[in-house]
From TrEMBL:
GO molecular function: damaged DNA binding; DNA-directed DNA polymerase activity; metal ion binding
Gene3D superfamilies per the UniProt record, alphabetical: 3.30.70.270, 3.40.1170.60, 5' to 3' exonuclease, C-terminal subdomain, DNA polymerase, Y-family, little finger domain
Protein name: DNA polymerase eta
Alphabetic keyword roster: DNA damage, DNA repair, Magnesium, Metal-binding, Nucleotidyltransferase, Nucleus, Transferase
Region of interest (Disordered), ranges: 450-469, 529-553
Cofactors that this protein relies on: Mn(2+); Mg(2+)
Record-linked InterPro entries: DNA/RNA_pol_sf, DNA_pol_Y-fam_lit_finger_sf, DNA_pol_Y-fam_little_finger, DNA_polymerase_eta, Rev_trsase/Diguanyl_cyclase, UmuC
Gene Ontology CC annotation, any one: replication fork
Family: Belongs to the DNA polymerase type-Y family.
EC number per UniProt: 2.7.7.7
Listed Basic and acidic residues bias regions: 541-553
């Protein structure tokens, strides 16, 4: 349902940059001989030559359309060059196009806030850059204006003859209102950026420049390829008056059909006949207000600062006789989709330090009987666990849950025509990855218990996945320490070898600063070890009446000679473990930084040449060579 957002205060300059038949351009850059020839990029399947997903402007002149298949395109244009999308795991591999899109984004994002809307389109908020230009070098003060900027299409500007001269006069008007001057500056900036994109990547793009995202999006497609269109405030009414209602974003479906059939609204301008109250009465408060706003070109949607994708997803369709009929066939394809998804989210984490938190499965299916023919296969979600095997396991459980709900009490035969999985709720990883932050101010055992209760239950699935329907937000609107471990029970007594008895008396800091280390857990607040009276009060209270000197050991903390009090007493307040009993799969669930730290810690204990029975890990950190 559309949500109305109030128009933001101040004059904004928003651009929508759309690449021209992008997939074709990527292939032409790989094969320069294709430039200037009618070309189309086709899907990987060979049924009737494959489905066209991008058509060059040379091919469009012959009547080739994206709705065609390769065989039909060859009938319309015998000389068309059909280039197949790369294939991986039996489906289209779009990585080359994603990478090419990232090249473009890296250039466009240099002048303002950048929101990557898809592989081949970007929103830019150029308000600050335009304001700065207007103060320092306003268009009327420029001796020469970028030639590409002078080719701009300015809506509402009369006369097609000598268009560039008319555009130049529009740019340099000294009596222009502030809004138009800002748009002129924004158009010059966009023209420069488009030139940089062409120079650095060999790709052309088109753009729309307006005061909000909605109008910029409409304008970018009005004059293609390699052109840009400006929408002054004075031209908004005429633009929307004749715009077919189905051309407006979010009006292409049922809502647009309802406007046409129930209210006789065929153009966006026709909405001006209805009051806001009438539209609210008919479509509800939010949708009614939104309709009233768009009829007047009002939209308060902000450009989100996002140059990385808000989610990762991959899918596969199985049309007609290729529909999947068995659970085994579904699981086979799910395994391949999960492999691809795992690679992409792992690469995202390695390169961008981002972690995905939600796994969602979507499917389209039908029953072979006529029972509930319109019932849809429910989408299912669960917390995402990293690792191919875990993602595969969880995706299969999600499908099973969805299938049971889809079939209900009927045991009909079914067919799956589409499968897709996605990773969403992607967030930046925390700055500090030290495991020690969980243990500050408490004993190791209580800290482990707290982490298990607070973090793991909220962010990771248990052994039996509790599926939820449609809980994944749209990445960032919308838009988290991932971990999945096993509970440590006091009854699970470890062997006496390599046990650690720890009593930590640090008071927990309100804010974790810097890059911590697990060794900080072994640091005590008082560095003196010469007299028991110098030990922390909690230590003295818990060991009153005992000969503490028989139980003190020295430990090296963070490479410095800060010493703490260590005791083999108070087992109720200590965490004991046997290095041999640690499940490696639990460590695999931790973030990479903690994995390396914990593995190094455990390996150090395993490499020790001699260790007295019952000795503690602090012998390995001691400055005393005889320890």
């Amino acid at each position: 349902m559309p949500i109305p957002r109030p128009d933001l205060q101040g004059d904004r300059v928003i651009a929508h940059v759309d690449m021209d038949c992008f997939y074709v351009q990527v292939e032409q850059r790989k094969q320069p001989k294709l430039r200037g020839l009618p070309t189309a990029v086709v899907q990987y399947n060979d049924w009737k030559g494959g489905a066209l997903i991008a058509v060059s402007y040379e091919a469009r002149r012959f009547g080739v359309k994206r709705s065609m298949r390769g065989a039909e395109a060859e009938m319309v244009c015998p000389n068309i060059q059909l280039v197949q999308v790369p294939v991986s795991r039996g489906k289209a591999d779009l990585n080359a196009y994603r990478s090419a899109g990232s090249e473009v984004v890296s250039i466009l994002s240099t002048k303002g806030r950048c929101e990557r809307a898809s592989i081949d389109e970007v929103y830019l908020d150029l308000t600050d850059a335009a304001e700065s230009m207007l103060l320092e070098t306003p268009p009327e003060a420029l001796e020469d204006i970028d030639e590409e900027a002078l080719k701009s299409h300015v809506l509402g500007l009369s006369g097609d003859e000598n268009r560039e001269n008319n555009v130049q006069r529009w740019f340099i008007r000294s009596d222009a209102i502030h809004q138009d001057k800002l748009l002129a500056c924004g158009a010059i900036i966009v023209a420069h950026l488009r030139g940089e994109v062409l120079k650095e990547t060999e790709f052309t793009c088109s753009a729309g420049i307006a005061h909000n995202k909605m109008l910029a999006k409409l304008a970018s497609g009005m004059h293609k390829p390699a052109q840009q269109t400006i929408v002054p405030s004075s031209a908004v009414k005429d633009l929307l008056a004749s715009l077919p209602v189905k051309k407006m974003k979010q009006l292409g479906g049922k809502l647009g059909s309802s406007l046409q059939n129930d209210l006789g609204v065929n153009t966006v301008g026709d909405l001006l006949k209805f009051s806001e109250e009438k539209l609210q009465e008919r479509y509800g408060f939010n949708t009614g207000t939104w309709l009233w706003n768009i009829a007047r070109g009002i939209s308060g949607d902000e450009v989100k600062g996002r140059v990385l994708p808000k989610s990762h997803g991959c899918g596969k369709t199985f049309p007609g006789p290729r529909a999947l009929k068995t659970t085994a066939a579904v699981e086979s394809w799910l395994s391949q989709l999960c492999e691809e998804l795992s690679e992409r989210i792992q690469l995202d984490m390695d390169q961008n330090k981002r972690v995905a938190h939600t796994l969602t499965l979507h499917a389209r299916a039908f029953k072979t009987s006529d029972v509930e023919p319109h019932k849809k296969f429910p989408s299912k979600s669960c917390p995402l666990r990293y690792g191919i095997n875990k993602i595969q396991e969880d995706a299969k459980k999600l499908f099973d849950t969805g299938l049971r709900e889809f079939l209900g009490s009927h045991s009909n035969a079914w067919r799956v025509t589409s499968l897709a999985i996605s990773a969403g709720k992607i967030l930046d990883t925390p700055r500090t990855f030290s495991i020690s932050r969980f243990f500050q101010g408490k004993s190791f055992s209580s800290a482990i218990s707290d982490a298990s209760n607070d973090d793991i239950q909220d962010d990771a699935p248990s052994s039996s996945i509790g599926c939820k329907e449609n809980i994944v937000p749209e990445s960032d609107k919308d838009e988290e320490v991932f971990a999945h471990g096993k509970s440590i029970k006091e009854d699970d007594a470890p062997s006496k070898d390599r046990k650690i008895d720890v009593l930590c008396t640090h008071s927990r800091k309100q804010k974790d600063k810097g890059n911590g280390s697990i060794l900080k857990f072994f640091s005590c607040t008082n560095t003196s070890t010469k007299h028991a009276s110098n030990a922390p009060s909690s230590w003295s209270e818990s060991h009153e009446g005992q000969d503490q000197r028989d139980h003190q050991e020295e430990c090296l903390v963070d490479g410095h000679s800060r010493l703490g009090k260590i005791s083999n007493q108070q087992r109720d307040d200590s965490w004991n473990f046997n290095a041999e009993d640690i499940d490696p799969s639990v460590i695999d669930e931790l973030p990479q930084e903690i994995q390396r730290e914990v593995r190094g810690w455990i390996c150090s204990s395993k490499r020790a040449k001699t260790t007295k029975r019952g000795s503690s890990i602090f012998h390995y950190f001691s400055t005393d060579d005889n320890a």
